[in-house]
Amino acid sequence: MARGNTRQRIQDVALELFAEQGYEKTSLREIAEHLDVTKAALYYHFKTKEDIVISLFRDLTRPIDELIAWAEQQPRTLEAKQEILRRYHAALIGAAPLFRFMQENQATVRDLSIGETFKERMVTLTQLIQEPDFPMADRVRCISALFTMHAGMFFMQHVDGDPEEKRAAVLEVAVDLVTRAHQGARG
Amino acid sequence: MARGNTRQRIQDVALELFAEQGYEKTSLREIAEHLDVTKAALYYHFKTKEDIVISLFRDLTRPIDELIAWAEQQPRTLEAKQEILRRYHAALIGAAPLFRFMQENQATVRDLSIGETFKERMVTLTQLIQEPDFPMADRVRCISALFTMHAGMFFMQHVDGDPEEKRAAVLEVAVDLVTRAHQGARG
Amino acid sequence: MARGNTRQRIQDVALELFAEQGYEKTSLREIAEHLDVTKAALYYHFKTKEDIVISLFRDLTRPIDELIAWAEQQPRTLEAKQEILRRYHAALIGAAPLFRFMQENQATVRDLSIGETFKERMVTLTQLIQEPDFPMADRVRCISALFTMHAGMFFMQHVDGDPEEKRAAVLEVAVDLVTRAHQGARG
Amino acid sequence: MARGNTRQRIQDVALELFAEQGYEKTSLREIAEHLDVTKAALYYHFKTKEDIVISLFRDLTRPIDELIAWAEQQPRTLEAKQEILRRYHAALIGAAPLFRFMQENQATVRDLSIGETFKERMVTLTQLIQEPDFPMADRVRCISALFTMHAGMFFMQHVDGDPEEKRAAVLEVAVDLVTRAHQGARG
DNA sequence: TATGAATGAGTCTTCATTCAT
DNA sequence: CATGAATGAAGACTCATTCAT
Predict the structure, then answer these.
(1) Which stretches hold the DNA-binding feature (chains A, B, C, D) (predicted)?
(2) What does the H/E/C string look like for chain C?
């Protein structure tokens, strides 16, 4: 039973349980039981419970940071912004459990000595897909484009239809929102 | 020290703290201290901690239920749907702390023997502002209209500008989304 | 709804619940709810919870005290002792719930500032149906006569047969035990 | 401060206190203090307070189960039944505190998700020392034999005399009761 | 006679965390 | 790498009791 991947397994189980039940309601005992180790074993790999969640965050934020870094170097054209949305959409799908966890545990995340950081990233991202001189409604459109994808990710479960088609539609609407914002600003 | 309103005061303080810190992280001790009564006093007015949150919910859902009931009797015209959005927007603003609590404690709310009910209401509401034969993208637009208002409510804090203007812009975008969905379906 | 019998009703309900669930596990709230009054009302009629149980005891012990008083004036003949058993048997049947309560809450009753008293009475009673110079086995027989009736009262539920016949048999065995004790001592 | 035996020590102290003061009136705090550990330590060894009592029960019932198993394989002769009584008497003496606890906490034990089981065992045992076609009085004698030993165990404290002699007398009377029941049935 | 509102002490239980082995 | 045993702090909840009205 040689295992060198315990740390990873802890993260996996923790993410799953945090997302499903919430951070506060998930005890280390529960995580340990799912892994068939003792609570003390968790402490070999992570200094505290918060540490686990923080490690999860780093994994979540790295792709976003990379996306932001990439976005910041793009020209502020509509086309670039559309690509940002496409990449964000892909990131969202690729890390669904992490985003779900974020979305459902906002209160907890807030004072996790890291929380602000996430909202900051979101703010940065919205700024990268709008322009400062947009009228307010168009700025809202750009912001809404992002949240359409977020909410879509979870609420769309309750809508009938082919998952692939639904995902595509969500992206289409987001892109369209940003596009209209730019046309509105121009026209 | 006027008495007779303790129940109400408990609800007020609880809502404030639940919204601010999250349900799990808010202890009854804390609520009691804020009110300058003992924990036991809370139990005179509410059977359990969950009971407090449930009572809060009833107050939250009543306006929504009324809105839904009203909406169900409207003709399925674009104009009626726009009015639904306007009314929902007003409800959102009128009960901001409650929605904020909901938004930030989704994981908790979920297994609160009442959570499902809320999501059901949201589903119903989205159905009332779309049409079953819409193409998927337009259905997403209608759903997005709702979530634009939700997210807007909280995320817009991070955007500069006159609060009144921001609120108006959020509503405008929401209404526009539904409008376009209907024009798309028609055109 | 004029009531002058609340005190009595409290005693009735309390006895029933104490016997059924035990003294400690029966809360005043529960008693009050069964009576459709508030806890505070109980305090109008009884100073404390213990007070209720003590009042119950007085009712239980009065018949026994009378029996003992009567027994003490009888000649120490076998016939008189048989009559004591018959009367005790009748008392047991007449106040079954009280005895059941006693039997099932011995630990509680013990430090109820009254408990010792009851055991004393039992000791006295056993002394009245035996003789000091009896051999030990015959003294045990006399004591056993009493406990046969006690246990019989509750354990005999688990034995098939006509209740009347069972009761008679229990009394018969008890009387026989004392009778044999006396014959043994004599013979 | 030898460790490794904590679980056993908890059981010992708990039994002592439960028997002395009753289950409900014995708090885990009290048990912990007697052992010079924290309450939480108890929870490392037992899942709940009830769990402690249940573990105590298993130890109590095992000897009885063995006795019953043995008894069921004996011929239904008077001699075998006398031996059953002797063995039950020995078991009673060997596990006096456990029986005392049972006897004095019947109300509590009843809804302990294990209680019924004990009464069942007692019923089984009484059936093994009587015969179905006995007249009622003789069946009562057999039952009484068992309860003579039970009550004797505790009530005999209040009778003067050499403990050894008293114990012997109790057994003698119990055996005699069963013997007479069988002679009566025959004669 | 009774209630509505509240208290203070205490209950069982759970948790994150520690540390010797 | 991991466990067994334990802790201290805190949590939700219950209870007997009180008292002004």
Answers:
(1) 27-46
(2) CCCCCHHHHHHHHHHHHHHHHCCCCCCHHHHHHHHCCCHHHHHHHCCCHHHHHHHHHHHHHHHHHHHHHHHHCCCCCHHHHHHHHHHHHHHHHHCHHHHHHHHHCHHHHHCCCCHHHHHHHHHHHHHHCCCCCCCHHHHHHHHHHHHHHHHHHHHHHHCCCCHHHHHHHHHHHHHHHHHHHHHHHHC
